[in-house]
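Quarterly update, task 2.4: pyridoxal-5'-phosphate-bound model.
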Amino acid sequence: FPIYQSATFRHPGLNQTTGYDYSRVQNPTREELESTIAILESGKHGFAFSSGMAAVSTVLSLFEPGQHIVVSDDLYGGTYRLFEEIYKRYGIEFTYADTSCIHQLEKALKSTTAAIFIETPSNPMMKVTDIEAVAGIAKSEKLLTIVDNTFLTPYFQRPLELGADIVIHSGTKYLGGHNDTLAGFIIVNNDDLAERIRLIQKSEGAVLAPFDSWLILRGIKTLGIRLEKQEKNALAVAEWLRGHKKVERVYYVGLNDHEGYEISKRQASGFGAMISFSVKDTSLVEHVLKRVRVIIFAESLGGVESLITYPIVQTHSAIPEEMRERLGVNDKLLRLSVGIENVNDIINDLEQALGG
Ligand SMILES: *Cc1c(COP(=O)(O)O)cnc(C)c1O
């Protein structure tokens, strides 16, 4: 599909249009990507944004002062920061609950609750929330179910099919897949909701550029084979880490003793390639981050290159210490996004980085 690198479009005459007026409103390359992501997520309407956070922010613009949202307590730090430091000032209220436990979720509901916002598997503790159960509660209480589906992508998990109303993505991660482009998505089925989102998208203007839309389209062509390979690598790496004497605990949904394993098998066709693990000795963290050579010490995830991050100082620095401690995001926890390299190269790299 071509890159329509144009901000504006010529009109054939008065009251005549080719269907495109101005690229903030719509651009053919972005439109192609938006319909692609809608098809992949089993949705009717897709929207592409300049980043994952722009997509989350657009969803938050649907709400009004006085409304309350229940949010997964283990979530991307930037989302927490957006809610607490930006949207709270506009009068939207948030309660953070362990949504992997339905009772905790129900306890957090109030008369003013308008939506439930979940991330599953969660970042970085890999907790699994039962999407169908959450959507069931939300439907009976007339609330919107919003799912950040970044970690599994529609290749493995399609929340709209499970009853969710809004799906969000950081397209920067698996959908792009090459650590070279920022992007964000919203996908919905409901026409009224789509109209409201379209209005916010064209009014606020955080749209995805034509070239970036094209890069994500190209990335999506290999989504399936990348994820198959990344998942296979991740399972081998998780099992290897579990047997290492300096590793305390491994959090990977694909290990059959993981708390969320059964729910995950029911609602997703794969476990993804995100692993968190804690080392026994805090001093080892610095060594590992300094010594890795195949794996790159960098923020982000989902691309072809394996990346390792230290959530407490990177992705989750905006989360208060008390909340981080409760969740287990402590100074011994590392997060690994497993790439498509030869699995022995990844394991050997971890071996030498953990050793000595
Ligand atoms: C990265 C990420 C985001 C934010 O997306 P950006 O593209 O970095 O703006 C939101 N949610 C999750 C789960 C993420 O991993």
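Highlight for this quarter: The pocket of pyridoxal-5'-phosphate is lined by residues 51-53, 76, 78-79, 119, 123, 148, 150, 170, 172-173, 182, 184 (CB under 6 Å).
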